[in-house]
Specification:
It is a single chain. With about 150 residues, this protein is α/β, with parallel strands linked by helices. It has two helices and nine strands. It has a four-stranded mixed beta sheet, with no helix packed on it. A hairpin with a 3-residue loop joins strand 1 and strand 2. It starts with a helix and ends with a strand. About 10% of the residues are buried.
């Protein structure tokens, strides 16, 4: 046996295995607990649910003139007939002159019962007055027949 081989075999026998110190286990447990607490606080805080608009509307079907409400913060608007007007009332305040009506990451689906249906979207204030701010639709708008 050579000296180099003998030295290498002794070095492999002398490996030490490190065991985590009790203080490290405590830090890890503390970090895990804080992460869980932060997640629960975020869930409890709430905020707007995804896939919705920030407001409500009234759907008017033409030429009949029948109306139906969309409900608050809808993600789907059902329209009946070939021509429809949705009068929206945003629920959030403008920021720098822009109302973020459909925030990024949200989806608004229109579902009609007639192929080739048309929807005109109007925006008014709660009092029915015109809105002078810009309306931002940063999310996704889909149109389906169903």
């Amino acid at each position: 046996m050579t000296f180099a081989h003998d030295l290498a075999s002794r070095m492999t026998d002398m490996r030490a295995t490190a065991t985590p110190a009790p203080i490290r286990k405590g830090k890890r447990r503390l970090l895990e607990t804080c992460a869980i607490a932060a997640g629960l606080m975020a869930l409890a805080h709430g905020g707007p649910a995804m896939a919705q608009v920030a407001g409500s509307g009234t759907v008017t079907n033409l030429p009949a003139g029948t109306t139906a409400g969309t409900g608050a913060n809808p993600s789907t608007v059902n329209v009946n007939g070939s021509q429809n007007i949705v009068t929206w009332t945003p629920s959030n305040a403008p920021v720098d002159g822009v109302v973020d009506f459909l925030p990024s990451g949200n989806t608004l689906n229109f579902v009609g019962n007639t192929p080739g249906y048309i929807v005109l979207n109007r925006f008014t204030s709660a009092s029915g007055a015109s809105i002078t701010d810009q309306i931002a639709l940063n999310g996704t708008v889909n149109s389906y027949v169903g």
